[in-house]
Design goal:
By secondary structure, this protein is an all-beta fold. It has strands spanning 12-18, 22-29, 34-39, 44-51, 54-58, 63-67, 72-75, 81-85, 91-98, 105-106. It has one domain (12-87): Jelly Rolls (Sandwich), CATH 2.60.120.10. It has no helices and ten strands.
């Protein structure tokens, strides 16, 4: 995915830590904003809800998980998923990705 053309837009995204094999990102979403359906071929996503209500939807098999502050969900390599803010206010997610080289493939 090109760095000059983001795959999605959310309220704020800050990389907290990054190495060749691991990336930690703090993401803030406005109500209704989402990271659209995608997969990763090399990394596992672990989403930790810090604020608000977050929905993680997955395919194959179909699964929907609602996260409140303090809850988390791990998404394994090559499993299609999306993450969205359920509102009514903003939500924050700490995303830990690794181990492996980052990629983002729309699904």
């Amino acid at each position: 995915m090109s760095a000059s053309k983001p795959a999605y837009a959310i309220a704020d995204k800050q990389v907290i830590a990054q190495s060749p094999d691991v990336r930690v990102t703090l993401m803030t979403f406005d109500p209704g904003q989402e990271i659209p359906w995608h997969t990763h071929s090399n990394i596992t996503d672990t989403s930790f809800c810090l604020k608000g209500e977050v929905e993680v939807s997955l395919r194959t098999p179909s699964e929907t998980v609602r996260l409140s502050p303090g809850q988390w969900k791990e998404v394994t390599i090559e499993r299609a998923h999306r993450v969205r803010c359920l509102g009514p206010g903003q939500c924050q997610v700490l995303l830990v990705q690794g181990e492996g080289e980052y990629d983002f493939m729309p699904a």
